[in-house]
């Protein structure tokens, strides 16, 4: 059962043609890896999947269970695209609470649990302007799943993380897969893709090519 | 939580200080001018209040820039993919921006009211309009029409604050719509600067064409100017909501790709 289907999408972005009739199917409950060179369009593809950008041609179909009416952004999607912004004068917990207030679905406990899951102390009084790059990355990751989102779209989730945190996040993602959540992620690290992904798509010649064997794709 | 967090911001103290300085200077100016030009007629506390409440100079040089900066900051703060994915669509995001800014708007207008109120300290509030107001003179332009039409003072002040709130929220909606279309902070900042400059030019530069007087910015934010131009108070209250609805329509057009499909076709033809 597919959660996201890309049907012959074409997209030019800032004068560069990134996709030309590219198609792909992302199944439910699996981890899908997306690999490609820098500037090949991974982030743009993620933005199109979330409805922030529209393809020039073709269509992106999202399972109606994850939609909130036609034309809108998908529901129950947790995303981490590029580097999310935050309020530098607030703590990590306060930033997450601000985001949680948008939907008002979760309370203090869920936010604290999410922070602990990525190895952050929710009681830390340090403002985010003093956070390290890795800590900011963990906050970005925590917001993507804190409301129980069923589809996670994660652009380079392992960036800036130390070895221990990488292991922690890998375990977390595998646990999410066991729960039946769908994950789309990009990574430049071969080991992340090899260890986590059920399917891998490579962006090549403006198309999305599903790789039959993981190892051969990762050069 | 949001309200408590918003109230405890240091910026409000700075804004209140600016308001207090302006209001007391304006009060001194009014008392001086009334003494010079209206010797035989007495003014009361409402004349001092209305001289500040209905002052276009204060609206354009004090309230407008403060509001544009607040709006800009909120739009950029909420213009994050992490926020967008939590709302239903662009229109819902616009609603979120307006909702988030409603608390600062109320605080801003309350501080404005507080600063004006402070200039009446020690004076007693009379029930009626003064002899100064009920007679016609250029100094009481901001009160005479209300007195002539039998408005109660608190009603007139509430109506003016409501009109100002509508106007300011309309500017926010314009900026938010620009953000939805461009997704660029610099583009929205440029528009905010353009709106500020445009409003000032529209106020200070009188149109040479009488038929264009309706387009003057003051008609849409100052109750008495609206009445003066249109002959009634109502157009001012209808104008801003209509323009906001127009923005919602524009956002829907984007969502339905109507504009983008057209632009794409034009671009393809040009590239051929």
What can you see in these coordinates?
Chain B: Residues 129-154 form the WW domain. The complex is a heterodimer of chains A (219) and B (272). Chain A has 219 residues and is α/β, with parallel strands linked by helices. Chain A contains seven helices and nine strands, in the order βββαββαααβαβαββα. Chain A has two domains: 2-76 and 150-217, Rossmann fold; 91-148. Helices cover 32% and strands 27% of the residues of chain A. In chain A, the strands form two sheets. In chain A, strands 5-6-7-3-8-9 form a six-stranded mixed β-sheet. Chain A is globular. The relative contact order of chain A is 0.20. The model of chain A is unreliable at 215-219 (pLDDT under 50). Chain B has one domain (2-271). Helices cover 75% and strands 0% of the residues of chain B. Chain B has helices spanning 2-7, 11-37, 45-53, 56-78, 81-84, 90-118, 131-134, 141-148, 153-182, 185-204, 223-230, 234-255, 258-271. Classes of the chains: A alpha/beta (219), B mainly alpha (272).
Q: What is the CATH fold-level name of the largest domain in chain A?
A: Rossmann fold
Q: How many H/I helical runs of chain A?
A: 7
- CATH homologous superfamily annotation of the largest domain in chain A: P-loop containing nucleotide triphosphate hydrolases
Task: Characterize the overall form of chain B.
Answer: globular
The percent of residues in helical segments of chain A reads 25-40%
Query: Which spans of chain A have pLDDT < 50 for at least 5 consecutive residues?
Result: 215-219
Total domains of chain B = 1
List its traits.
heterodimer, A: 219 residues, alpha/beta, Rossmann fold, 6-stranded mixed β-sheet, 7 helices, 32% helix, globular, disordered C terminus, B: 272 residues, mainly alpha, 13 helices, 0% strand, nucleotide-binding (chain A), ATP binding (chain A), ATP-binding (chain A), ABC_transporter-like_CS (chain A), AAA+_ATPase (chain A)
């Amino acid at each position: 059962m597919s959660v996201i289907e890309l049907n012959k999408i074409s997209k030019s972005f800032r004068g560069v043609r990134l996709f030309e009739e590219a198609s792909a199917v992302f199944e439910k409950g699996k981890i899908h890896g997306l690999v490609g060179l820098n500037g090949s369009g991974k982030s743009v593809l993620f933005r199109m999947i979330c409805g922030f950008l529209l393809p020039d041609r073709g269509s992106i179909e999202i399972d109606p269970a994850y939609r909130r009416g036609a034309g809108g952004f998908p529901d129950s999607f947790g995303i981490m695209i590029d580097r999310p912004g935050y309020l530098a004068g607030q703590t990590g917990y306060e930033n997450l609470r601000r985001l949680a207030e948008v939907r008002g679905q979760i309370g203090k406990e869920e936010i604290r649990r999410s922070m602990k899951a990525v190895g952050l102390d929710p009681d830390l009084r340090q403002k985010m302007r003093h956070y390290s790059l890795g800590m900011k990355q963990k906050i970005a990751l925590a917001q993507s799943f804190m409301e129980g989102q069923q589809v996670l779209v994660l652009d380079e989730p392992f960036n800036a993380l130390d070895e221990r945190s990488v292991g922690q996040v890998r375990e977390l993602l595998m646990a999410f897969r066991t729960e039946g959540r769908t994950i789309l992620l990009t990574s430049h690290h071969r080991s992340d893709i090899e260890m986590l992904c059920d399917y891998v798509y490579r962006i090549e010649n403006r198309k999305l090519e599903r790789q039959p064997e993981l190892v051969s794709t990762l050069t | 939580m949001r309200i408590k967090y918003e109230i405890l911001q240091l910026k409000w103290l700075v804004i209140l200080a600016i308001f207090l300085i302006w209001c007391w200077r304006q009060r001194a100016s009014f008392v001086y001018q009334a003494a010079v030009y209206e010797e035989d007629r007495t003014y009361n506390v409402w004349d001092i209040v209305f001289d500040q409440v209905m002052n276009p100079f204060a609206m354009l040089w004090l309230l407008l820039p403060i509001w544009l900066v607040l709006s800009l900051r909120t739009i950029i703060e909420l213009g994050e993919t992490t926020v967008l994915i939590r709302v239903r669509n662009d229109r819902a995001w616009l609603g979120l921006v307006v909702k988030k800014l409603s608390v600062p708007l109320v605080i801003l207008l309350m501080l404005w009211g507080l600063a004006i109120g402070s200039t009446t300290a020690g004076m007693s509030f009379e029930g009626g309009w003064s002899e100064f107001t009920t007679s016609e003179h250029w100094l009481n332009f901001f009160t005479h029409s209300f007195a002539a039409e039998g408005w109660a003072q608190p009603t007139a002040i509430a109506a003016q604050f409501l009109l100002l709130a509508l106007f300011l929220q309309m500017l926010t909606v314009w900026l938010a719509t620009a953000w939805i279309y461009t997704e660029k902070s610099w583009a929205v900042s440029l528009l905010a600067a353009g709106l500020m400059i445009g409003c000032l030019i529209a106020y200070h530069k009188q149109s040479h064409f009488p038929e264009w007087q309706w387009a003057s910015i003051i008609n849409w934010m100052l109750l008495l100017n609206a009445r003066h131009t249109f002959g009634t108070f109502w157009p001012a209250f209808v104008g801003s909501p209509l323009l906001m609805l127009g923005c919602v329509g524009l956002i829907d057009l984007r969502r339905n790709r109507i504009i983008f499909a057209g632009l794409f076709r034009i671009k393809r033809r040009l590239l051929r």
